[in-house]
Amino acid sequence: MAKNTKNRDHQAKKSMKINTIHRRRLYFLSLFGLAIVIASFLVMRALDKNINLYYTPTELAKQVISNKARIRVGGIVQQGSVVRTERLEVFFTITDLDHHIQVKYTGILPDLFKEGQGVIAGGYLREDALQADEVLAKHDENYQPPKGSRHAS
Amino acid sequence: MNRFNQLISPRFVYRCLNRLLPWCLSFSVILLLLGMGLGLFGVPPDAQQGDGFRMIYIHVPAAFLSLGIYSIIFCCSVIYLVWSLKIADICAKASASVGALYTLIALISGALWGKPMWGTWWIWDARLTSELVLLFLYWSYLGLRLSIREEKRAAKAAALLAIVGMIDIPLIHFSVEWWTTLHQGATLLKFSKPSIATEMLIPLLIMLAGFSFFYGTILCIRMRSELLKREWRSLWVSEIVLNIQLNTKA
């Protein structure tokens, strides 16, 4: 409140001075913010490939990847491609409708896994097929009640 | 300017907060109970995810407000640094712990949702990682305030930290568009129509409002106590304290 009375004493003079101070601070902060934005933009550009979680089959077809590197491939499980053996082995094809890649996986699949479902498989390349040690289901952002009257979950 | 000064005077703000508190509290209780009841029992299961999708009613409001509250802290910090409004700093300080709590809720509920649906609790994709960074930002904001004893210096340092950390907010929001992630794209916050059936959307909006009012409730309580603490020398505080004492005697 002391500030208030001071203001009233020499209002005209002070308010002008205070305005310039505020303006200067605002300029400084804007420059500061701009610097942060530019810096993080450059960092993100440089890290772009590392931030991406998976390769699409098309990206995979374009480049040679060492079979010692663990990679993830993401896409859709091709219709009619899922083959299960008597053990827990599963073979399926991941496609992005342009290119596709064979996947071999041993283990339990997520509940959402089915043909036509988005999946991400992680593992090592073996003779143009992916020997996966992890299969994750990627669902879309649409939420709706099931078609038909009753749904047993 | 004089009128504006009156509006942000600690005493006036304290009175407003006092008035707002019961409203915020009752709205948050009613809306949260209503939203949870509808979300758990009134809404059909999802076509893809079955009953698992009901986690949306906790996860999405918490995640949404973790971003929203950080944006509020950012605005308050800019106002504090440029115009030295103490009330902006008090608001930022009072918001941070709720923001951290919501971020934690979003991360934990996301993990619980991710395990049955995706098949993993956690993955280092752009969305999850940037949300985790937000939690660390909140914690470092709170820690920084605690570690500097002098209130003014703590406020300035924390405000600068909040402004630097603001860059994470657009990163979180656009992470699912700019990079490939396991997390799906936006359902609500996009230019086209929300991709969720209307009957499922309504409880979600109710929960969103409930979470917001809960934030408002905590904000009122924390700002009030912060105001009393900072203004303990002034007359209006002693008046309030005396009144309370008189009431308890009578």
Description:
The complex is a heterodimer of chains A (153) and B (250). Chain A is an alpha+beta fold. Chain A is built from three helices and six strands. Chain A has a five-stranded mixed beta barrel with strand order 1-3-4-6-5. The C terminus of chain A is likely disordered. Chain B is globular. The longest helix of chain B has 33 residues. Chain B has one domain. Chain B contains nine helices and no strands. With 250 residues, chain B is an all-alpha fold. Chain B starts with a helix and ends with a helix. The mean pLDDT of chain B is 91. The chains are: A alpha+beta (153), B mainly alpha (250).
Write out key terms for the chains shown.
heterodimer; A: 153 residues; alpha+beta; OB fold (Dihydrolipoamide Acetyltransferase, E2P); 3 helices; elongated; B: 250 residues; mainly alpha; 9 helices; 0% strand
Major beta sheet of chain B, specifics? none
- CATH class designation of the largest domain in chain A: Mainly Beta
Number of domains of chain A: 2
Any idea what the CATH superfamily of the largest domain in chain A is called?
A: Nucleic acid-binding proteins
- SSE pattern of chain B: HHHHHHHHH
User: What Rg of chain A, in angstroms, do the CA atoms define?
Assistant: 29 Å
Query: Helical content of chain B, roughly?
Result: over 70%
Helix percent of chain A reads 25-40%
Question: Largest sheet of chain A, order of strands side by side?
Answer: 1-3-4-6-5
Helical stretch count of chain A?
3
Report the C-alpha radius of gyration of chain B, rounded: 21 Å
Q: What proportion strand of chain B?
A: under 5%
What is the number of helical segments of chain B per DSSP (H or I, 4+ residues)?
A: 9
- Overall form of chain A: elongated
Major sheet characteristics of chain A: 5 strands, mixed, barrel
Cα distance spanning the termini of chain A: 64 Å
* Helix/strand order of chain A, N-terminal first: HHHEEEEEE
Distance between the termini of chain B: 42 Å
Low-confidence stretches of chain B: none
Give the number of DSSP strands of chain B. 0
